[in-house]
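ingest -> fold -> write
write: protein_1
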Amino acid sequence: MSKSANKIRFTIYAIAFIPFILLLATGVILLKYHTGAPLESTVMGWNAHYWFSFHKLTAVLSILLILLHLFVKTDWVKNLLLSKLKARFKASNIILFIVFIICSLTALCSWLIFDGANIAELLRGIHNKLGLLLIVMFVIHLWNYRKVIVSHCKELK
């Protein structure tokens, strides 16, 4: 792959990383409200309404950018899912992908489809637990690919 193609890929990954980190951080902050704190109480000057709005915004951005991340790696993803790839981190990548999809779907369904219904609360509870698992899987993903990430950073010089 050419140096310019690597720069484009790495730029996409770096841009996708920022809102995803914000998404994970706001998710952790929102756990305060999901565990019973009053919605008017504040964290860093914002109450639950602001944090929920910011979390939704970063979620939409993250989903779009993660899909772009996967699109850039279309052949790799296809080979991974079709078991044609003997990837070293195949299991953790598949788990990360599944957790991400289910976490996103439970959030989107509770927010867009079932908002106000009893099932929305159940979906948010599932989403909260999967969100914590997603954080763990994301850290594992970064750890697994740390040498590749460092290598890409060195290539950019």
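write: protein_2
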Amino acid sequence: MSFLFNKKEIRSYTSFILMLLILVACFALIDFADAANTNDASLSDDNKTHKPVQVSQKAIKRAAKTVYLTANYDKKLPNSVEIEGYNYSLPQFLYLASGSIYKRYHNNTSNITVNYNIKRPSDPKDHDVKKNVSSYKWYKISKYIINYSKKHHSSPKYVYVNGKKMQYQSVVFYLSKYLSRSKGETGLPKYMLVSIKKTSPINNNGYTISLFSPYKSGTSKSYLISSPNAQSKNPNIKKLAKKITKGSKSKLQKAKAIYEWVINNVEYEGYYNTRYGALKSIRLKKGNCVDQSHVIIALSRASGISARYVHGTCKFIVSGRTIGHVWVQVLVNRKWVVVDASNTRNRFGGVVSWNIGSYKKHGVYSSLNF
């Protein structure tokens, strides 16, 4: 039996078959795209929620070196520590670093299990500490941190070193330094010197407490007066001060806002003594340490915040030069708080651009004659 089709019928059947094939292909592509999208979303979610179970000691050592170098440079510990793409809190990092020192002491190169259930200790306090600490003592400190963290779900407020309390922040700093100096996969330094004061910026969230001064009642009025170079009563300065401090609810917030504005808008320029004064420095957006101080003082006084000049001789960290320098103290919460806008690494209440342990203070003034 044979089937005969005319040309018109053949064309119709061919078109129908082609249409079916196209539809099948489209459905297959849609299914594939949906599957691909589902897999991508799943992977994305896994990346967001995945917490490493263990971390290699090599990775912990690299992180410890970063923590030490950063904190030594900025005089402030980081808020978190990145290890192999995951951010750990400081207490979690301290636990990992302690675990690595503990295992290194026993010549154990295995990975460290992460403990996520650790909080930062509240109100840690310490003493001044100066002691050459042996590897055995670092091992004992690390063991204590591990056990304390497991039991209390918190890092310890301090550890004892030679009968002195070394504060939590100092422990993170020096433990990081010690681990970063280890060699090979299991080696530990035999000794490392710990030398830190309780007023260190490391222990005080970056604040240079040693450059603060106590407030004596009845001495603030002279530090609110307008002067030829700190023109706090000038309408333009008053207007700018109001704009900068808009939304600030306390003197502390106002003082911080003013400092941040100056350090971001009045670029440091090297020369001696006053060249511009506050008004011109604001207009030119530049000035040396003296003129930057004029700007901070003018804006602070215009905002009702007592501010004064401090003159001294300082050794600067990067250049190594020892030269005359001017910075500011603002009166906040009955303390004269240091502010120095001459270097962008400095911050409100904190100085890292010059050696705070060797400077010589010449005087404190309401106005300058140079």
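write: annotation protein_2
The CA atoms of residues 285 and 324 lie 22 Å apart.
Confidence is low (pLDDT under 50) at residues 1-11, 16-48.
pipeline exit 0
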